């Protein structure tokens, strides 16, 4: 049974905000030391964390969650070690905060600097995975931000224990334990209170399914860094190299079908289809990929079913794929415009003119020519850890590492300049 | 009489979005040429613009608007020439769009570029000033964005005429006239439709009074670049140079009291007050500044009235100022934390330690040491034109020039890379 705890969300956000002020001024070494201390405490308290996780797993079994969900929820010694190691990794990353990103002097002698500063207080709203609790905290503290954590109800026992260990660890560091706040409630209202707490929370980062993300985007007055839903397309052009095309299609669809940078629709130029139909059928069959197609695709592929509107519009997150046959790149671009979620879109072509048009016209965080969409990922791109993949256009776009958790401040130093 | 026109906001936003796609790919020279053409047409059509403006002015007189409002609304030959010249200035500014802001190659050979791209469609929601119609359009087009304009009802005749001239001018250029959309309605519902049009509008920029801005922030699901309310403070420290302190106070309060970077509260260290009381009284009197103070300020200054909560919290936009006496810099910082609007905050001190703490702890777009807050302004900082001053923390912060109207896109070029 989950214990319902009375929480005072506003008070917690205020504590976080207060802690963020001093945290924002701490030197990098102090923050790194704190992360290492948290990592050690997490590992040392593995047994307690696993015991709490066992309660969540028991509740999950009772609730009849599916295997994939239970897997996301489950912790073991290795997974706890993984998130401790994750914090040690973040301690090694460059600290963006305090960087002077630009500097100039006006004719009147006024010196102008733009300095990277922490956002302040990050509100993290997420679903089942308990590792996000430690990962997000590490990224927030390293970049000088306090964090308010609101995890999914199904992981509340695990999250509570992880936070308790992290806060206890902070008592041994120069970071106030108030910098990490855990909303210990399964009440939806507690989440909704975060949506409008503009006075005390600087940004909300929702991480989870489409429903969670739209609830935050549609109801929040706090600025939102929208993450994640990826209805990604692979367009195989008439000038595609067939070997690359099939390798990319298979990788983007099957490597990890449940993640946001997996492909959900393949768009194929009719000339490519005509030239490589047998190989296409063979490749899909070998890789257990089921097709929901438009008329031309259904005609060409035995066993393909007709795609419904929702199959063009939504992620399958499985070995299913939607398939559209087009007569030119502009038709592919129009389809992506209509159904894409501005995450990752790929073209396979050796025609540079066609590639240029695709790269220019498609509006997405990441555009690929001749590579799998699976590279839209902080670690694959060399950022170290990431707090999510932004699919919105303001500020951080694409995989968000430490710099995405900062903003800038103009700092002007003068000797009495007036206008 | 204002004519109520049936408008189809969604259709207009769709047209803008379609136009933005090709506009985003146009070379800088083509966009500059279009701006110069618009400028020439505006000047050539001054008579028609002034005739339309006369209708707005007549309506305004009938409605009994005050002199300051009528002044913001009024156009004359010089003002029309000013906004034509503004477009010519924007044509000379560097084009941010297309800039490769970063580039690296992964170990597997995948080339990664981050490229600055236009945001897409900008929804501009603003109040009386008709010059915003031309200024915002120039900045949007130069940075490769389409724009949907929703101006204040009181300027609807002027705005309609200005837009009509600009669209006619675009017919002589390579930019589609659909890239500029004017919501020809005084119906509040037309504005509200823009708030949630996420499919077709990429960002909303509200520009006007606090009420307008909060209506947008509280109701929009489209990302908002929040601009402008400036409840700015000048903190005069015990280690302030008195001559600089008074010059900055007078400049920040009186140079243009109605603008957002004017000072609204002065916070004075008690030691400074004690040392310079007579000079302070004299300076305020000479400059016709009325004081609403806390207890200590009222005690020290003859004629000062007690400040109410709303006077600490809101802009006066007049020669009134709120005054608080403090015993250290932290008390000043706490007051700014409570009442500031994250716009521009200044400290006058020759003590570098105190200045460092103020600059580090105060959370605002612009922090000044020994200079007037009046420099928070695109042209004063050397950006050329600005579309507004952002007081939010995501993406663009402070004065927003052309780069603030762009985002980035990751463009990856490979030869078959998969994970």
TrEMBL record, chains A, B:
Instruction: Please report the stretch or stretches of sequence annotated as the Aldehyde dehydrogenase domain.
Output: 3-289
Q: Name one Pfam family in it.
A: Aldedh
Give GO MF terms, alphabetically. glutamate-5-semialdehyde dehydrogenase activity
Query: Which key words tag this protein in UniProt?
Result: Amino-acid biosynthesis, Cytoplasm, NADP, Oxidoreductase, Proline biosynthesis
EC number(s) given by UniProt: 1.2.1.41
Main enzyme class: oxidoreductase
Keyword NADP on entry? yes
Q: Where are the transmembrane segments?
A: none
The UniProt catalytic activity note for this protein reads:
L-glutamate 5-semialdehyde + phosphate + NADP(+) = L-glutamyl 5-phosphate + NADPH + H(+)
> Pathway it belongs to?
Amino-acid biosynthesis; L-proline biosynthesis; L-glutamate 5-semialdehyde from L-glutamate: step 2/2
State the compartments where it is located. Answer: Cytoplasm
Q: What InterPro entries does this protein's entry cite?
A: Ald_DH/histidinol_DH, Ald_DH_C, Ald_DH_N, Aldehyde_DH_dom, G-glutamylP_reductase_CS, Glu-5-SA_DH, GPR_dom
PANTHER family hit by this protein? DELTA-1-PYRROLINE-5-CARBOXYLATE SYNTHASE (PTHR11063:SF8), GLUTAMATE SEMIALDEHYDE DEHYDROGENASE (PTHR11063)
**Its family?**
Belongs to the gamma-glutamyl phosphate reductase family.
Q: Which HAMAP family match?
A: ProA
* Function, as annotated: Catalyzes the NADPH-dependent reduction of L-glutamate 5-phosphate into L-glutamate 5-semialdehyde and phosphate. The product spontaneously undergoes cyclization to form 1-pyrroline-5-carboxylate.
Question: What is this protein identified as?
Answer: Gamma-glutamyl phosphate reductase
Origin organism of this chain? Jeotgalibacillus haloalkalitolerans
């Amino acid at each position: 049974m989950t214990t319902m705890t009375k929480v005072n969300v506003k008070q917690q956000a205020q504590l976080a905000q207060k802690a963020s002020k001093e945290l924002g001024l701490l030197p990098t070494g102090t923050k790194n030391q704190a992360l290492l201390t948290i990592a050690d405490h997490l590992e040392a308290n593995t047994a307690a964390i696993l015991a709490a996780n066992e309660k969540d797993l028991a509740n999950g079994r009772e609730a009849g969650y599916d295997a994939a969900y239970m897997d996301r929820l489950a912790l073991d010694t290795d997974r706890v070690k993984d998130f401790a190691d994750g914090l040690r990794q973040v301690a090694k990353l460059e600290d963006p905060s305090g960087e002077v990103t630009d500097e100039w002097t006006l004719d009147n002698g006024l010196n102008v600097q733009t300095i990277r500063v922490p956002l302040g207080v990050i509100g993290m709203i997420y679903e089942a995975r308990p590792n996000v609790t430690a990962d997000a905290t590490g990224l927030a503290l390293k970049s000088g931000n306090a964090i308010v954590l609101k995890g999914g109800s199904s992981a509340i026992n695990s999250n509570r224990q992880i936070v308790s260990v992290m806060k206890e660890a902070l008592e041994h560091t120069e970071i106030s334990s108030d910098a990490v706040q855990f909303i210990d409630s399964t009440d939806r209202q507690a989440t909704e209170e975060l949506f409008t707490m503009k006075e005390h929370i600087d940004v909300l980062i929702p991480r989870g399914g489409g429903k969670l993300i739209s609830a935050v985007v549609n109801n929040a007055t706090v600025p939102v860094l929208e993450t994640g839903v990826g209805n990604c397309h692979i367009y195989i052009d008439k000038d595609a190299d067939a070997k690359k095309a099939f390798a990319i299609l298979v990788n983007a669809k099957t490597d990890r079908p449940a993640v946001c940078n997996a492909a959900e629709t393949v768009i194929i130029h009719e000339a490519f289809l005509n030239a490589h139909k047998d190989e296409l059928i063979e490749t899909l069959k070998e890789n257990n990929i089921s097709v929901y197609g438009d008329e031309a695709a259904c005609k060409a592929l035995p066993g393909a079913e007709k795609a419904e509107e929702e199959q063009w519009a939504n992620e399958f997150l499985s070995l299913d794929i939607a398939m559209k046959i087009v007569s030119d790149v502009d038709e592919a671009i129009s389809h992506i415009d209509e159904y894409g979620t501005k995450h990752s879109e790929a073209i396979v072509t050796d025609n540079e003119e066609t590639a240029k048009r695709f790269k220019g016209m498609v509006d997405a965080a990441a555009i690929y020519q001749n590579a799998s969409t699976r590279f839209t990922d902080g670690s694959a791109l060399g950022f170290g850890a990431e707090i999510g993949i932004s699919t919105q256009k303001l500020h951080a776009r694409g995989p968000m590492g430490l710099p995405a958790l900062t903003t800038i401040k103009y700092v002007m130093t003068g000797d009495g300049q007036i206008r």
